[in-house]
Design goal:
about 5% strand, alpha+beta
Length: about 140
């Protein structure tokens, strides 16, 4: 990662599964809970180039029946390999793939203004601030 390369699939998958477990939306199967807990730790901050593989179990983890256990992943998975690996851990209900022309993406990026303190995002084309270059809430510079 420190080289500027893409984050390995295993690291991203481990982070996603860890967050789902933290929220109580994904439970390790009872037969392998101790092994999956130890192998699903996050990437140590002392060695940013080391990625831990997602937990491996003989039986799939159980998912929560909690109606709040719904989420959207934006930008992951990007490949069928990533989707297959993710589907091995959690059920995937719906996938939406948007094919946006490059010129539209570049136009949206060029029109974007962000308030650094809050992260509020404006776009001069379709969500402009009330005063150009100023945050609507604080009046601070974007």
């Amino acid at each position: 990662m420190s080289s500027g390369s893409l984050v390995p699939d295993a690291a991203i998958l481990s982070l996603i599964l860890s967050e789902l477990k933290t929220k109580g939306w994904l439970n390790s199967s009872s037969s392998s809970s101790s092994s999956s807990t130890s192998s699903s730790s996050s990437i140590p901050s002392s060695s940013p180039d080391v990625a831990h593989a997602p937990p491996t179990t003989d039986s799939p983890a159980s998912v929560s029946d909690d109606p709040t256990a719904s989420f959207i992943l934006d930008g992951f998975p990007r490949t069928s390999t990533q989707a297959s690996k993710l589907a091995g851990y959690i059920p995937i209900n719906l996938v939406v793939s948007l094919n946006t022309p490059t010129d539209i993406i570049l136009e949206r990026i060029a029109s974007r203004w962000v308030h650094p303190g809050s992260g509020r995002v404006y776009n001069t084309t379709f969500n402009a601030p009330r005063v150009a270059g100023k945050d609507d809430v604080t009046g601070e510079r974007l």
